[in-house]
Amino acid sequence: MEILGLPLIYYGAMILKVLVAFVFVLLTVAYATYAERKIIGHMQVRIGPNRTGPIGLLQPIADGLKLFFKEEIIPAEASKFAFVLAPLVALITAFISFAVIPFGDTIEVMGYKVPLQIAAYADQTGTVFDLNIGVLYILAMASLGVYGIVLAGWSSNSKYSLLGGLRASAQMISYELAAGLAIVCVFMVSQSLSLQAIVADQAGLFGWYIFRNPFLFVAGILFFICSLAEINRTPFDLPEAETELVSGFCTEYSSMKYAMFFMAEYANMVTVCAVTTTLFLGGWHGPLPSVLNFIAKVYVLMFICIWIRATYPRYRYDQLMKLGWKVFLPLTLFLIMGNAFWITLFQK
User: Fold this and answer.
1) Whole-prediction pTM value?
2) Which of 223, 274, 303, 321 has the fewest CB atoms inside 10 Å of its own CB, making it the most exposed?
3) Helix (H, G, I), strand (E, B) or coil at 201
4) What is the distance between the alpha carbons of residues 271 and 268, in angstroms, rounded to a whole number?
């Protein structure tokens, strides 16, 4: 049986890749919490979780069950609809950003090409079509994600939550600008907004954009740092700031709603590492099978995120704003000009 000239097995393969990608992100989110606690524990000469299962491997499951069975509390003065909606907005936008990221080379199923990217398909000739503005889609989802945090801060009717929400919105505006300008350097080289085209242009070890020229190298590092600030990872976790704001925007949340914010944070970390891999580190290109190359690069970047958390203290808020507007923004403009001169002089 065929639909639109393609067999059902083709559509089955398309659905399967969606499920595989979702399960991969979900498992990575769950065990990123375990890995972070274990790695930081060793860095601080502690053991980390080691009681629940062998070497603590069942700790994420235990944490999930604990949060699932905790009492659900909604403050009496909270705006209930927005209060419930906020964690959903944060979590959904974190997961759907992964839809446009190519996580492997095209595979063949029953003679038909199946691209390993959720928002992509191949026609009968094997030509792959993806969302040709994939980078803009990711930036849009990153912008929408902050609405969940702002909603949580406003709807909780708590001064600590409100301050956390305001900080998140200011932080996103400040650092998304620098992150977007850093990506402009990639557009100048690839001449495309399609993530498939960007990855295809990075074939070979020294084809990776981070090795193409010194301006792209700095742009890659800058994009990664700005992305950490956008998703509120340490040392840019001012919207939570336990020492100042109790727990920031999620102060009033409990049970699974709190767990959803927790999952959104780690899903955003996975997405940021995947986007950095795609834009600057050659995507799935490398010595291993394509999917393994992609996973290895993402996990190395996630380890760096954890390493940064264990190493650096939280910025003061005025320092955070100064870094975004007075350092990163002028630096990205300089990188764009330098990259333009480099392309004009050396790139054929």
Assistant:
1) 0.89
2) 303
3) coil
4) 5
